[in-house]
Design goal:
Length: 369
């Protein structure tokens, strides 16, 4: 058996843990030959690859990034160096020439969409869900999310002490694209006073009211805002657009937008911190290492069973699978009636609106985090 492996899209803590788990289990259990493609789908398009031996994937478990490199623009259906050409047939020719039996593709929704489309030209894939954003459909966790949340929580903790010392409003902008998972989980873990997520467009008057109310007693306010958050009736703030990318819009800037809007409405000084790629770098948490390892082992077992066209997933705390086509081109948003949103409401954390009618969780309710 000969299997290719690649990491697509933005990097994320835990990628190496998956590469290690897939390669080790395929080598040990199936005596397979494992080929690592470099820089995501670019490696498959341009035939850039290397054989991965057992020794090559030893010692990489705690390392951040990806030993294979990744690429967030290379798309076989719109090859950026050739004015958007569809080079999927060329990719298929490379795949056949190498004698591959299938691929393990580790990535987010863009990668799963490409893997699904490649299935139509005869390239078989098993997907592994990666992203700090935790926004892939049909899996309750993606690896990388826990690490990003711990880093963002640490930032909230640090902003608390400096914010308190100066009596300031401290705004922390997190990543997460169009979903508020990182902001919500880090905001709750850090005890933020206001959490703004894309799923609940905020009312700036309400945010200002919370800051003024806190000024009367506590004298400082912590606001965690997901990069995709937007005011009611307003738009998301776009940092840049990268036309060649399968996902061209890069969000960012809502933290400073919020600061500008709030400044005339509150007396305290306001400071904004944009956490940015710090959330994506460095070593994964123990939870992400183990999730990534289990995802990798499960992906290898699907390959061994000759099952392709599926993505491994965590559902109700169990390893499971979902068809790639059900994940492609979709985003998993924070449900506004989820446990964490209700927890925020229960402890008096503002979600940026005074008119939200959030039912508090009751014993016996079927709620997931
Ligand atoms: O999807 C992961 C992510 O880090 C998002 O949270 C963020 O919006 C985006 O990637 C940033 O992309 P780039 O690394 O291209 O700036």
């Amino acid at each position: 058996m000969k299997i290719g492996i690649l990491t697509g899209g933005g990097d994320c803590p835990g990628l190496n843990a998956v590469i290690r788990a897939v390669a080790k289990s395929l080598i040990l259990q199936c005596d397979a030959e494992v080929i690592g493609f470099e820089e995501g789908f670019l490696g498959l398009i341009e035939n850039k690859y290397r054989k991965l031996e057992y020794i090559d994937v030893s010692g990489i478990l705690p390392a951040g990034g990806t030993i294979l490199g990744t690429h967030n623009k290379a798309n076989p259906f719109s090859y950026f160096k050739a004015d958007g050409d569809d080079v999927s047939e060329r990719v298929k020719a490379n795949y056949d020439e190498l004698g591959l039996d299938g691929l393990v593709v580790i990535g987010g929704d863009g990668t799963m969409t490409i893997a699904h489309r490649l299935g139509r030209v005869g390239i078989r894939s098993v997907g592994v869900p990666k992203t700090i954003d935790n926004d892939l459909m049909h899996t309750e966790r993606t690896f990388g999310f826990d690490t990003a949340v711990s880093i963002a929580t640490d930032a909230v903790d640090r902003l608390q002490t400096t914010g308190q010392s100066h009596g300031r409003v401290m705004i922390l902008e997190t990543m997460g694209r169009y979903a508020g998972w990182i902001a919500l989980h880090a905001g709750m873990a850090g005890g933020a006073d206001v959490i703004l997520i894309p799923e609940i467009p905020f009312d700036i008057e309400e945010v200002a009211r919370v800051c003024r109310r806190r000024d009367e007693h506590q004298n400082f306010t912590i606001i965690v805002v997901g990069e995709g958050a937007k005011p009611e009736g307003g738009e998301q703030v776009v940092r840049e657009t990268i036309e060649e990318s399968p996902d061209p819009v890069r969000l960012g800037g809502i933290g400073n937008f919020l600061k500008e809007k709030l400044e005339p409405m509150v007396d305290s000084e306001i400071r904004t911190t944009v956490l940015g790629h710090i959330q994506r770098g460095g070593t994964p948490t123990a939870f992400d290492r183990n999730l990534a390892t289990n995802f990798g082992i499960y992906a290898a077992s699907l390959v061994a069973a000759d099952r392709f066209g599926e993505m491994v997933a965590l559902q109700n705390g169990r390893m499971s699978t979902v068809e790639l086509k059900k994940v492609a081109d979709k985003t998993r948003y924070v449900p506004v009636d989820s446990l964490m949103v209700r927890a925020a409401a229960a402890v008096g954390t503002s979600l940026g609106r005074s008119d939200l009618d959030i039912e508090l969780a009751q014993p016996g309710d079927d709620l997931s985090i």
